From TrEMBL:
This is Diguanylate cyclase (GGDEF) domain-containing protein. SUPFAM superfamilies: Nucleotide cyclase (SSF55073). One of its GO terms (biological process) is cell adhesion involved in single-species biofilm formation. Keywords: Membrane, Transmembrane, Transmembrane helix. PROSITE patterns: GGDEF. InterPro entries: Diguanylate_Cyclase, GGDEF_dom, Nucleotide_cyclase, Rev_trsase/Diguanyl_cyclase. The lineage of its organism: Bacteria, Bacillati, Actinomycetota, Actinomycetes, Micromonosporales. Residues 205-335 form the GGDEF domain. NCBIfam families: GGDEF. The chain crosses the membrane at residues 12-33, 39-58, 70-88, 141-161. Pfam families: GGDEF.
């Protein structure tokens, strides 16, 4: 999405706190402290203060009720309201201009660069409208340049820090959910993906769980050394990823020489995946020990289970039968009901 909002919760809180502060502030400074001013001006400020407070309460308590474009346009709306208040009160001093920092920081924290630049441009134009209307031209020019440069530099710094933080967070998330040796997902990520896949699975989108053991892996380590064993594991992980053929999938290393693959596929598609994976492992070069063989167990939801735990048990049982049958082979799980097995 071109104008995707980052962190809906944080954005809602930022808007709510600003509105709940700005409403009472404007009521005190623009209404109570200026009761002798023209009545239309005082009434307009009172209505604006009430509107800000109401919007703040909605953003705090029921942010989902606000239309999505609101969250993208709120810094522009905020800058517009600040400009209107500054013009309405004929106040071009630097104090009220500092309120422009809020829409600027909101845009820099939660929106993309294009909207940040648009917000800076609106702030610059809004301050120019106020300054050149109520100040001597020379002073107005100096103030306008100062505000524009300060807001631009603030936007650049905050957006840069945000992007750097996003990159660091992405690295940490990858490290927390992936296996450092093979680049496959780890057990934590696998469990989360399995729960999500089972929750959305059905007859129109089955989920295959494929459990894989590298045969005689201890022998590879003992005979050729751990470096060759690590290379064999990376070879298997690469082959599993490549065999997915662009299907939605997750390859995970559950520990040692045990891998798991979640695949959006029916039994036939899962069997085809295992054949491709074996072929890719067999074609691997550069392994002094030669390509390892694989024992594989396959279970499909809803054919062999109706929940995540039973799906894992069915795939593990199929893997056990593959190993008991001589290794280097694939076995499909047995349907849980006798009638299903004979259908």
């Amino acid at each position: 999405m071109a104008h995707q909002l980052r962190d809906m919760h944080g954005a809602a809180r930022a808007v709510a706190y600003l509105m709940l502060a700005a409403g009472p502030y404007n009521f005190v400074t623009g209404v109570l402290m200026k009761l002798g001013d023209p009545l239309p001006e005082v009434v307009a400020l009172a209505i604006t203060s009430c509107a800000l407070t109401v919007v703040g309460l909605i953003c705090l308590r029921r942010p989902e009720r606000m239309p999505r474009p609101f969250w993208l346009l709120v810094p522009l709306l905020g800058a517009g309201v600040i400009t209107a208040l500054n013009v309405g009160t004929a106040d071009a001093t630097m104090g009220p201009q500092l309120f422009y920092l809020w829409p600027l920081l909101y845009a820099a924290m939660f929106l993309n660069r294009r909207l940040v630049a648009l917000t800076v441009a609106q702030i610059s134009a809004g301050h120019a409208l106020t300054a050149f209307q109520f100040q001597e031209s020379g002073q107005a020019l100096l103030d306008w340049i100062a505000i524009t440069v300060a807001m631009s530099m603030t936007a650049v710094v905050v957006a840069g820090l945000r992007e750097r933080n996003d990159r660091l967070r992405g690295v940490l998330e990858t490290q927390a959910t992936s296996d450092s040796l093979t680049g496959a997902a780890n057990r934590r990520a696998f469990d989360a993906e399995l729960d999500a896949a089972v929750a959305t699975a059905g007859h129109h989108e089955p989920v295959a769980l494929i459990m894989i053991d590298v045969d005689h892996f201890k022998t590879i380590n003992d005979t050729w050394g751990h470096a060759v064993g690590d290379l064999a594991l990376r070879t298997v992980a690469d082959a599993l990823r490549e065999a997915a053929e662009d299907r939605r999938h997750m390859v995970a290393r559950l520990g040692g020489d045990e891998f798991a693959v979640l695949l959006r596929a029916a039994p036939y598609g899962a069997v085809r995946f295992t054949e491709l994976a074996r072929a890719r492992v067999a074609a691997a070069t550069g392994l002094p020990s030669g390509p390892p063989s694989l024992s594989i167990g396959i279970a499909v939801l809803p054919d062999h289970a109706d929940n995540g735990d039973d799906l894992q048990k069915a795939a593990d049982a199929a893997l056990y039968r593959a190993k008991e049958g001589g290794r280097g082979r694939s076995m499909m799980a047995v349907p849980p009901h006798p009638l299903a097995a004979t259908a």
